[in-house]
Amino acid sequence: MAAVDGGEVDHLAGERATAHFDVDAMKVAWAGSRHAVEVNDRMARLVASDPVFRKDTRTMLSRKELFKDTLKKAAHAWKRIVELRLTEEEANLLRLYVDQPGYVDLHWGMFVPAIKGQGTEEQQKKWVPMAYKFQIIGCYAQTELGHGSNVQGLETTATFDPNTDEFVVHSPTLTSSKWWPGGLGKASTHAVVYARLITQGKDYGIHGFIVQLRSLDDHSPLPGITLGDIGGKFGSGAYNSMDNGVLRFDHVRIPRDQMLMRLSQVTREGKYVHSDVPKQLLYGTMVYVRQTIVADASKALSRAVCIAVRYSAIRKQFGSQAGGPETQVLNYKTQQSRLFPLLASAYAYRFVGEWLKWLYTDVMQKLEAKDYSTLPEAHACTAGLKSVTTSATADAIEECRKLCGGHGYLNSSGLPELFAVYVPACTYEGDNVVLLLQVARFLMKTVSQLASGKQPVGTTAYMGNIQYLMQCKSAVNTAGDWLNPAAIKEVFEARALRMAVNCAQNISKAPSQEEGFSELSPDLLESAVAHVQLIIVTKFFEKLQQDIIGHGVKEQLQNLCNIYALFLLHKHLGDFLSTGCITPKQGALANEQLGRLYAQVRPNAVALVDAFDYTDHYLSSVLGRYDGDVYPALYAEAWKDPLNETVIPDGYQEHLRPLLKQQLKFSRL
Ligand SMILES: CC/C=C\C/C=C\C/C=C\C/C=C\C/C=C\C/C=C/C(=O)SCCNC(=O)CCNC(=O)[C@H](O)C(C)(C)COP(=O)(O)OP(=O)(O)OC[C@H]1O[C@@H](n2cnc3c(N)ncnc32)[C@H](O)[C@@H]1OP(=O)(O)O
Ligand SMILES: Cc1cc2nc3c(=O)[nH]c(=O)nc-3n(C[C@H](O)[C@H](O)[C@H](O)COP(=O)(O)OP(=O)(O)OC[C@H]3O[C@@H](n4cnc5c(N)ncnc54)[C@H](O)[C@@H]3O)c2cc1C
């Protein structure tokens, strides 16, 4: 019972007793290793037991109080990291469990990786140790008021002045103001700024520069620099802990060696030199972060699902006959058919996130060896998986709120804040539609190369089987046939390939490739989604091929994998039917099988969310409590609201009393 924070009675004990598998072994499968379970557990408890990291009143704080609280938590987290001499792995987990977005996320998550990825060895030696010791705080200043998605359209300039060996950084227009970077508004002392490099009268496009923004003595903006926060954001609490900022430069001078020079250089004379590496490596930090966002999707989704499953097991409505017990809402088939696919998706995203991390590391090793061949695949996979997993997770958190009925709408359920914090993931690090169009572009290129006999590799290898996949018909005859991984994989591959080929054929009928791509873009999005869903399904099956230990664990994961795939099949039935991959009868059989799988998950549902091993502190939800003691917690939580500090509300004398005493008479009565 690792995750209990308190509570003496386990109201979910009956649910836990019906599980058909070893929960501790499932924790290992979820976390990736026994070591990962141990270190996650230790860091989560460290945070949960520290009063500075309390967050139960966070949604009641004003913006200023919330921001100050975030600064306090970040400083305290750093103090604990230093005092306890935590490893990098431990420190990252501690920050994760502190669970309050703040400047440190961008400092560690983008500023440091940008310098490591785009700085020379010398630059890394100079800047990274300062960042590691927090002698400087950095952010990632790319997006501007006028342009975010279109990185090549950014307007900030960095013009080389050979007389002084400096770059002059300038914001020539209002729309060139940097706008959105997290940590920029109030906390950062430095930024990696993306600007158009101009030297010897020529514009060489976007490059990264390290720019100091604030004094290291008193934190005031340096001369020529205008800085501020861009204002309140969606939801109470939530992402408002982050100081997303605005930044303008008025001819600010920086030394030449503060241009990040790993990919290209400007010499003392002002000559531009580009190394023989693809220019897209400039976008490397975004690829890195997109990969981490996929792993975060499973965290956010599993968190919402954990709340909704536990509460659904406690909540009872209707069904009482002759004074018998009412029905747990988790027993309603509708509740199961809405909730269990989300549970399955959390596991699916966890495993595809694990695989993506491996892919990213592999691609990085190849890049070190100057093999750039897998870069387009890495870009397509990170962009596509970021897009599909974040969109589905944002929708799922909202669905979990609805699955919790009225109480899900209370801040104390944890779901409104989780949604408000999570939903911008559909936009930051690349708008999800823009990113899917990148995947579609990659797919169209792959399809066009099939004709020339080029054998696709990696996640598009299935396209090489075009002769078969374009005409195959599913052999599924019974509902049980849908439990065969080969049957599922075949229809997902056929659907993805046929949709891509249809798009390619339609584009080829347009006056130009560009016009065709634009005209077909809604279909291309669906084609990209089909390809990405195939990747997720395939990686789940591949996970099941690995050595999975523990009583009943593999069987549970097999059920979840089948649910994930068949749920997608049911949801996108139109795709599968219109491309002729399956018949309506086979679609109905898939749905029948799905119902049977839900029945198998039902007795295991609470244990399957226990395997996420979340503390009550991290969940931050009265509905998702480990002990299931929901009603006293809901009742107690209500009294913490500032409105309940007084029995008679502020405003009674001015606005309620006169009304009730009828001192304002309605003249016609
Ligand atoms: C309750 C509380 C709960 C929890 C709270 C706890 C914690 C919260 C914690 C954390 C939150 C913290 C941090 C995260 C939050 C926010 C951070 C956000 C940061 C940002 O948003 S940074 C800005 C990101 N911006 C973008 O992503 C811009 C998107 N645009 C692009 O990426 C590109 O410009 C685009 C659209 C891909 C390129 O379009 P275009 O085709 O016009 O480009 P090019 O001409 O430049 O490229 C052509 C060529 O290059 C290929 N290519 C493009 N990108 C890449 C790439 N990245 N890698 C490799 N190759 C690439 C492209 O496919 C073309 O190839 P082709 O010519 O077709 O072969
Ligand atoms: C919470 C948050 C944190 C952020 N943090 C940072 C940060 O730390 N640093 C940083 O630099 N930036 C940051 N950003 C900015 C973020 O990266 C951009 O907002 C994001 O990349 C989207 O760009 P945009 O705002 O220009 O959207 P737009 O591109 O203007 O999107 C508007 C609409 O146009 C559509 N659209 C755009 N282009 C196309 C196209 N080619 N085809 C079809 N449809 C299209 C989009 O789908 C969308 O519906 C952050 C944003 C948010 C919300």
How would you sum up this structure, described in words?
This protein has 669 residues and is of the alpha+beta class. Helix content is 51%, strand content 9%. The protein has 23 helices and eleven strands. It has helices at 13-17, 23-31, 34-48, 63-83, 88-98, 103-118, 121-132, 284-314, 333-368, 375-403, 415-422, 432-450, 466-469, 485-508, 513-519, 521-545, 553-571, 573-578, 584-601, 605-610, 616-619, 630-638, 652-660; strands spanning 138-141, 157-161, 166-170, 178-179, 190-199, 202-212, 225-229, 245-249, 252-255, 264-266, 272-274. Strands 1, 2, 3, 5, 6 and 9 form a six-stranded mixed β-sheet that branches. Strands 4-8-7 form a three-stranded antiparallel β-sheet, with no helix packed on it. A two-stranded antiparallel sheet has the order 10-11. A hairpin with a 2-residue loop joins strand 5 (190-199) and strand 6 (202-212). Helix 3 (34-48) packs across helix 5 (88-98) and helix 9 (333-368) crosses helix 16. The longest helix has 36 residues, at 333-368. It is globular, with a radius of gyration of 27 Å. The N and C termini lie far apart (67 Å). Mean pLDDT is 96; it is low at 1-6. Residues 99, 101, 105, 109, 140, 142-143, 148-149, 151-152, 182, 280, 283, 286-287, 375-376, 379, 417-418, 421, 428-430, 434, 438, 441 line the site of ligand LSKO443Y.
List the helices and strands and how they pair.
Layout lengths: L12 H5 L5 H9 L2 H15 L14 H21 L4 H11 L4 H16 L2 H12 L5 E4 L15 E5 L4 E5 L7 E2 L10 E10 L2 E11 L12 E5 L15 E5 L2 E4 L8 E3 L5 E3 L9 H31 L18 H36 L6 H29 L11 H8 L9 H19 L15 H4 L15 H24 L4 H7 L1 H25 L7 H19 L1 H6 L5 H18 L3 H6 L5 H4 L10 H9 L13 H9 L9
Parallel strand pairs: 1-5, 2-5
Antiparallel strand pairs: 2-3, 3-9, 4-8, 5-6, 7-8, 10-11
This protein binds ligand LSKO443Y and flavin-adenine dinucleotide.
